[in-house]
Specification:
By secondary structure, this protein is α+β, with helices and mostly antiparallel strands. It has a single domain, classed as Orthogonal Bundle (Arc Repressor Mutant, subunit A). The protein contains 4 helices and 3 strands; from the N terminus they run αβααββα. A 3-stranded antiparallel sheet has the order 1-3-2. Strand 2 and strand 3 form a beta hairpin. The relative contact order is 0.13.
Length: 112
């Protein structure tokens, strides 16, 4: 019997998306450009998933935004803050540790 992995994938993606956003926002970007860039890398994301995350991160002071009204269409750009960089570094360290543990266990189980 096949198991629906959708809920598992959703849970895994929730944290992963935060890390991706922190990495992308090392330079000014607006929401649609983030969606497009992630899509080009093979990570499908809907805007209605991204924008609530951006609002939550901004509310926590981990990213900041500003409007660019110099063009025909105003755009809201986002960038990571110092606090956001600190969180990103910690999250990347956790991810690296988890990845090492997983790889170690996979390798260990292949030798059984």
């Amino acid at each position: 019997m096949a198991t629906d992995i959708g809920p598992f994938e959703t849970e895994m993606n929730r944290g992963f998306l935060q890390v991706l956003v922190f990495v992308l926002l090392e330079k000014n970007m607006y929401g649609y450009s983030m969606v497009k860039q992630l899509d080009e890398k093979g990570y499908a994301l809907e805007e209605n998933t991204l924008y609530p995350l951006l609002r939550r991160l901004e509310k926590k002071g981990l990213i900041k935004s500003k409007w660019d009204v110099s063009k025909d269409r105003p755009r809201k750009f986002y960038i990571i803050t110092k606090d956001g960089r600190d969180v990103r570094a910690k999250l990347l360290k956790i991810w690296q540790q988890q990845n090492e543990i997983l790889n170690h266990l996979l390798k260990e189980n292949q030798n059984v």
